[in-house]
């Protein structure tokens, strides 16, 4: 049994504001340890439940945040950029039985600690086939296309609510409760590690591959906080204006859809000016 862990940082234990997750800051350095604790707890739980392999894919910012030397010696980790499937890299090879989303968060335009979708700001909403989409929802659809179930999600309490929408059978662990975008009631790392480990052990029973889920079309719409960002996004082939500050595109598969999404966000991030966005 092989479990993939997609590890993001905004939903990690103790993380509540931008400096906690911005590489190079003293707060980021401190929170790397908390982030690593969450991921390691999940890995230990999966091994407790009978998993043979745990592969961790770093999914935050530079994708060089976790402390490899603090992970269980059985774990392997994909670290660094750039990867074909970004946040769920490794799922495409046919040997993953389940995926866990550790340290996840809610999507752009919704309530939640450090809520966003791919870009920290600039994107104010994302919709997949008409449904508002978080990173969790987008990645769950990619996983489904490969027949891989989402079995565990951790983050703030609202992230757990979001997860029930795209992975209703998954175990969830709230490591903190949302107060505002930059504030939360946080559990201690000792408590969250125990909670995550127990949930991961229980979730291992859900690690059963299913038939790949195919969709007729992957229709994605994005809304930005400035019109020039929408214009920049249309540089990507197939992406067209769909409304005020909005663009849309349609792909035949989620694999193609998430790769186009990554291209759009890369182009848009390069079009953002420091002071005026």
How would you describe what is shown here?
The protein has helices at residues 26-48, 135-145, 157-166, 189-203, 227-233, 254-270; strands spanning 2-7, 53-58, 76-78, 98-102, 123-128, 131-132, 150-156, 171-180, 183-186, 218-224, 240-243, 246-251. The protein has 277 residues and is α/β, with parallel strands linked by helices. The strands form 2 sheets. A 7-stranded mixed beta sheet has the order 3-2-1-4-7-8-9, sandwiched between helices. It is globular, with a radius of gyration of 18 Å.
Number of strands: 12
- Give the % helix: 25-40%
**String of helices and strands:** EHEEEEEHEHEEHEHEEH
Strand order of the largest sheet: 3-2-1-4-7-8-9
Gap from first CA to last CA: 45 Å
SS-based structural class? alpha/beta
Strand content: 15-25%
Q: What value does the Rg take, in angstroms?
A: 18 Å
- Put simply, the count of helices is 6
The average pLDDT is 97
Give the low-confidence spans: none
- Major beta sheet summary: 7 strands, mixed
